[in-house]
Design goal:
- There is one protein chain.
- By secondary structure, the chain is an alpha+beta fold.
- The protein is flat, with a radius of gyration of 18 Å.
- The chain folds into two domains: 86 residues, no CATH class; 83 residues, no CATH class.
- The protein is built from five helices and eleven strands; from the N terminus they run ββαββββααβαββββα.
- A hairpin with a 3-residue loop joins strand 4 and strand 5.
- The chain has a three-stranded antiparallel sheet. It has a three-stranded antiparallel sheet with strand order 2-5-4. The protein has a three-stranded antiparallel sheet with strand order 7-10-9.
- It comes from Cyprinus carpio carpio.
């Protein structure tokens, strides 16, 4: 949906870049918000206002469609069946999300070999690092302590969101594997950084 604003109208929203994390397979093309937040950390807001979908070549994919199972800004996009093309999505986010330059340092408070999981939960980090993290983050990013992006590890995450933080539980891994050791950082509203 195109939106037109009069000249001088203050913009209250912004768009993300085009995002494509999945290729169509025999079962479909999945550009779900939960997986895009992991694949493109700090580039997608957790509560988008709108979603746009096109094929990779730029042809709009407009709802409703009999093969579009999900087409929703809070869930993302799903096309199911063997006839799906390769789709990309972009989201409209509140302007406060796109304009933020307020990002915390990296935090690593847990080790997966000591207690069966690597938990970098926001509630624990707020207690351990008072004043270093905002209580209402607008983005989260997780990497291994060696710097590998979380989505590339193959680990299954129990939690990965701005409300709770991050957790990877060893018992939840396929084949009985052990989670990598992770670190996290958050993006915060600009008011958090400007008040320091």
């Amino acid at each position: 949906m195109r939106r037109f604003y009069p000249v001088g109208f203050p913009l209250l929203e912004c768009r993300t870049p085009w995002l494509d994390r999945d290729d169509p397979s025999g079962v479909g093309d999945y550009e779900t918000l939960s997986l895009l937040l992991i694949r493109y950390p700090l580039q997608v807001c957790p509560k988008p206002i709108a979603i746009e979908v096109t094929t990779i070549s730029g042809t709009p994919a407009l709802p409703p469609g009999n093969i579009f199972v999900v087409y929703d800004p809070l869930q993302g996009f799903e096309c199911k069946n063997g006839a799906c093309e390769d789709y990309r999505v972009r989201f409209t986010c509140p302007l406060s999300f796109c304009n933020t330059t307020c990002v915390t340092m990296w935090f690593d408070s847990d080790d997966p070999k000591t207690n069966g999981s690597d938990s970098e939960l926001l509630s624990n980090l707020l207690t351990m690092y008072p004043g270093e993290i905002c209580t209402n983050p607008i983005g989260i990013e997780a990497k291994t302590v060696s710097g590998q992006e979380a989505y590339k590890t193959g680990d299954i995450f129990l939690v990965y969101n701005t409300v709770s933080g991050f957790a990877c539980v060893n018992a939840g891994q396929t084949g009985g594997g052990v989670c990598d050791d992770y670190k996290v950082r958050f993006s915060c509203p600009e008011t958090f950084c400007s008040s320091e």
